[in-house]
């Protein structure tokens, strides 16, 4: 079916872009053995599926299986009421106020990375290539360890860090999977529980890697939580460690996480927080290296703000909101290069999905909503939405990385699906 084509593209998104151009922002695809899937890039449809409809569109079975293999029983593998419980417990750790408290730490880590880069170029010379993505992965791992758990992985300094090494290769075969992978996944997705257990008894290389990560990250999480027990006043704190430890001790079933859930949650945070941020930053630096004028503008902006705080050498959090070039560069990079280009969901019940822009059916009839049966596979084309959305959101140059668009007045600010700030 089409599934193999869009998972084997040379440039991620090219096919979805072509399809949206041809058929509009919602269309049918054929999956393994001709199974139907609905792909949507329409803002109203995405809003309906992700935001307004709660658990009517849970993650697809295979996405949940991957999450379970990677993390165990954390938020990304949880469903329905369990997911709601996890989410309620974790939300305070992600409030704006809480995140602002990490600004100093993140600037310190950026300083450590800069020193490392200088050290490398001193030894290898300015012409030698540097694997920046690998180093960004290390710095974001240290950031999540220290901000989330008060634990120093020390991966910028320690080049043999085992967890950093595992994380570096974890999704190595995500790109261009072979046909057997689809068929095996298709069979697993439809197999009864006992048969799934039998299949899982013979893990693929990928499953072995995922399980190894789970084992190692849970062991690290156990160590982090043990270490934090004596040092943290976890009854009042809103950091990840405090939130998790409080939940583990809670008598209230609606606010409690078992020990396994706590460790799974920690393992989820380590991967979800680190890989996404590292990839996004890699794209930021890639685009800045291609756009020297914007690189100069962002450097000037940072230097200007820093010059106003010469003693501390550190930028206070309140300044970030006014750093227009920096914010525009980040937003534009998230738009152009989403780390999750497609989200895979499944309708938990019969439903009607509304559309912002009508599409024309194969019989030539314009429709403004799509009826879907329970069990319908729905692929949310984040990448295509970020490039097209409504025709006049991004304009003619939607395929160009142009941070300035964020400084101009948007034509339709009403629709904020928030594809890159979920
Ligand atoms: C640029 C950085 C990031 C990007 C692009 C990003 C992207 C995403 C996306 C697309 C999802 C939805 C996945 C789905 O519905 O299947 C998601 C969920 C999630 N992310 Fe991130 N993320 C980023 C940073 C982080 C960080 C720093 C953390 C934690 C420290 C984090 C933790 C999570 C968690 C726990 C979920 C699951 C939420 C839920 O199920 O309710 N993410 N992220």
Q: In short, what is this structure?
A:
The chain is α+β, with helices and mostly antiparallel strands and 422 residues long.
Question: What would you say this structure looks like, in words?
Answer:
The protein has 422 residues and is α+β, with helices and mostly antiparallel strands. The chain folds into 2 domains: 1-57 and 339-422, Uridine Diphospho-n-acetylenolpyruvylglucosamine Reductase, domain 2, CATH 3.30.43.20; 60-72 and 80-283, Cytochrome p450. Helices cover 55% and strands 9% of the residues. The chain has helices spanning 2-7, 14-23, 43-52, 61-71, 80-90, 96-100, 103-124, 132-149, 162-169, 179-190, 193-200, 205-231, 240-249, 259-290, 292-307, 317-320, 324-336, 382-387, 391-394, and strands at 26-30, 36-40, 342-346, 351-360, 366-372, 377-381. It has a 4-stranded mixed sheet. A two-stranded antiparallel ribbon has the order 4-5. A hairpin with a 5-residue loop joins strand 1 and strand 2. Protoporphyrin IX containing FE (HEM) is lined by residues 59, 75-76, 87, 144, 268-269, 272-273, 276-277, 280, 339-340, 343, 422. One of its GO terms (molecular function) is iron ion binding. This is Cytochrome P450. It is found in: Membrane. One of its GO terms (cellular component) is membrane.
